[in-house]
């Protein structure tokens, strides 16, 4: 009912010129009726040429308003596209950051292996030094012939020869161990260096992706500022055109009304007002009702409850961790909150379900749900190209009844709002 009242009010504000003339006539007659018998000054009556010129000016203003509206629509489309591309770039940065962290972990593991190999090498070298000292002190480094010739008896000679064979074998084993450990150390250090190189490359790629995301988001904000300026200009242009046209028409109507008899003018004004009211079309447009949601699993309800705790929290580009809001990056550096996929990931983690960090990965990894089968707690996704999942730039939680819970964009807060079907690529069900 409230919407219908507002609609009727809007229509009453757009009555035909006859209705507006009637309103001016009533005002004029009331003014004349205040002091009966006293001649008042005749209102200025614009010439036909003045009226035609004013009408032309009003038509020109209306045309300019139409042009501005078209420009504003185009600017808004550019803002939406730039914002979507910025979110895609941020998604790419988050993926590269995850790869960098994995490479960094591999580097640390390889470095630990290298350190262990070096420690083993040190032990082996200590064994070699010990063997050398022992051999020197025991005289085992002397010639085998000397050892044999200095034997006191054949039995002693045989025994010393066997002992030298055993000692020589131990020495060979130690030297072999040193060689193997040295090779292992070199391999481990090489793997560590390769992992570090890979990590540095990934880090550079992540930084480039972030710079691209920042540039796209900055462009989107500049376009939004242009959009706001154009909106203000359009409203001012429209107000000027309406005031000009209404003023000139009011002067002509007041002049015509003055020439009529007060009683006849009052009767005509009353009849015109009654006719205008009767001819005003009724607003019989029914209110659109959304179908109720079909419910979902307990995990989905837990996720909704977890996300709802943070309604009103700032959007933070790149923000959101498994434990709650976190500092954003880029244009939202220093802002603590969630981005869209950060909120959905946090919510389902609280429900005991782990999903990927970024929106594209979430969509690809989870079971798909069609529009007609959406349930409370399902994730809904938007893309610049609904035939290509790699263009996904936003995700939200479906609440049913045509509403969603989302972290919308920079400068806004986590909120519950109406579902936007434009750009909808599909749904996914983490609780499946």
TrEMBL record:
Q: Where is the chain membrane-spanning?
A: 21-39
Question: Coiled coil where?
Answer: 51-120
| Pfam families in alphabetical order | NLPC_P60
Where along the chain is composition biased (Low complexity)?
Answer: 289-299
Q: Which InterPro entries does this entry report, sorted A to Z?
A: NLP_P60_dom, Papain-like_cys_pep_sf, Peptidase_C40, TAT_signal
- Assigned protein family: Belongs to the peptidase C40 family.
What this protein is called in its record is Cell wall-associated NlpC family hydrolase
List the source organism: Petropleomorpha daqingensis
């Amino acid at each position: 009912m409230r919407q219908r009242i507002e609609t009727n009010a809007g229509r009453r504000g757009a009555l035909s010129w006859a209705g507006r003339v009637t309103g001016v006539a009533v005002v004029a007659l009331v003014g004349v009726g205040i002091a009966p018998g006293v001649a008042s000054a005749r209102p200025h009556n614009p010439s036909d040429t003045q009226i035609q010129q004013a009408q032309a000016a009003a038509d020109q203003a209306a045309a300019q308003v139409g042009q501005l509206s078209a420009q504003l629509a185009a600017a808004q489309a550019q803002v939406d596209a730039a914002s979507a591309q910025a979110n895609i770039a941020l998604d790419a940065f988050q993926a590269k950051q995850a790869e960098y962290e994995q490479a960094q972990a591999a580097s640390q593991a390889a470095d630990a292996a290298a350190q262990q190999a070096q420690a083993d090498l040190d032990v082996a070298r200590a064994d070699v030094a010990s063997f050398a000292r022992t051999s020197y002190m025991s005289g085992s480094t002397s010639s085998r012939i000397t050892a044999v010739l200095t034997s006191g008896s054949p039995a002693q000679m045989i025994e010393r020869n066997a002992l030298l064979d055993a000692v020589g074998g131990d020495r060979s084993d130690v030297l072999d161990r040193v060689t193997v450990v040295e090779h292992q150390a070199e391999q481990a250090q090489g793997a560590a260096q390769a992992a570090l190189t890979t990590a540095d490359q990934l880090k550079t790629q992540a930084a480039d992706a972030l710079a691209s995301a920042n540039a796209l988001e900055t462009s989107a904000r500049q376009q939004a500022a242009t959009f706001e300026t154009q909106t203000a200009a359009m409203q001012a242009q429209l107000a000027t055109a309406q005031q000009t046209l209404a003023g000139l028409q009011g002067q002509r109507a007041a002049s015509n009304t003055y020439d009529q008899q007060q009683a006849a003018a009052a009767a005509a004004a009353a009849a015109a007002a009654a006719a205008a009211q009767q001819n005003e079309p009724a607003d019989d447009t029914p209110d659109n009702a959304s179908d109720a949601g079909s419910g979902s699993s307990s995990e989905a309800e837990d996720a909704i409850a977890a996300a709802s705790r943070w309604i009103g929290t700032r959007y933070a580009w790149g923000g959101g961790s498994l434990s709650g809001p976190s500092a954003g990056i880029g244009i939202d550096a220093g802002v603590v909150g969630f981005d869209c996929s950060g909120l959905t990931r946090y919510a389902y983690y609280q429900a005991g379900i782990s999903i990927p960090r970024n929106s594209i990965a979430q969509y690809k990894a989870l079971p798909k749900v069609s529009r007609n089968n959406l349930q409370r707690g399902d994730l809904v996704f938007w893309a610049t190209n609904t035939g290509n999942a790699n263009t996904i730039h936003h995700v939200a939680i479906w609440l049913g009844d045509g509403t969603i819970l989302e972290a919308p964009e920079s400068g806004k807060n986590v909120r519950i709002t109406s579902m936007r079907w434009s750009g909808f690529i599909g749904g996914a069900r983490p609780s499946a």
